[in-house]
Amino acid sequence: MEPQTKRWKGSECDTDSWVAYPVLSDEQSQDVELIEAFAAPIVNKKETSRLVRELSSHYPLNSLQHIKRVRAVKAKGSPHPLEVLVCLVSDAPDMTVVDIKSLLPSDKVKPEGLGEPFVVKVPARPPLTRPQFELASKHWPTSFHEDKQVTVALKGELFGPAQKSMMHTYMMSAVAAARAGHELGMEAVGAVVVDPVMERVIAVGHDCRGDHPLHHAVMVCIDLVAQSQGGGCYSFDKYPTCTFTAPTLATTENPPDSEGSSQPYICTRYDFYVTREPCVMCAMALVHSRVGRVFYGAASADGALGTKFKIHSQKDLNHRFEVYKGVLGEQCEDLSSLDQTKRNSLQEKR
Ligand SMILES: [Zn+2]
After folding, report:
1. Residue range 190-204: average pLDDT?
2. Which of 244, 261, 259 is nearest to 195 (CA)?
């Protein structure tokens, strides 16, 4: 029987050998922040709706819209089945003794039906991912508006076999470009730009910083994309691996974000495959070129798309994009060791 995943000869083309995981923003990946609140047992269940109404009016908990006011007590043998959040500790009145009457000093909330208060920790912010939701719910019942794509992506299941097969091919081209650059004495970093709608490679490039310190593989590729659109600043003619193809008529007829021009703005909606996590300069160039998504293989200590910074998710920048890491991770890591070997041999010669 034909296997579902398209396979090539040899293990290095096995799409099961890698998983692409999303590089999420700090807000999406941080631990659950907790805040202290007073809760109290509801000793008379019949008073629940009145208590919730009066408490919500007196202590509205506006910053905790994601928190459920009442929770069921799951512990067996508990004398009361429900507990209610009274208020945040920071909102409580000054009290010499912590008791329910001191917490509810006005006649706006009648304490009948409530037991004595105790301190709980509740999630301070709405959960953004399923792992955050699961952690938050351990502290207090929490609402969650799930982004299904993020949930699936975090499991490494966003891309099906056919998509992974395409991604594999593109990153293999980037790896081949990196090796070609390395043969010429450059850093072993390669990149490929793809129009995912047309499934077309727009540019292939490798590190060229032997010529110019700023010609990192990403910068080379952005310039090649610009050249494919009639622009660009540099010539990479002496590097046969650094190439571009002009977009076809079909890709330019109805550009989705063209701002009146007949072509998409540089990398609008394009995918970028790069063997090593881009640096800050390259990440900013990707922002400015309006890239659609970035896939990289190996993380880098100075990387700006996950390791040192997360430029793709900066709220104060005017363009954000999705980033996935781990595509052909092993082959891309091997390229870094090529660079290391080169550095070591240069040091030995000195
Ligand atoms: Zn760079």
Report:
1. 95
2. 244
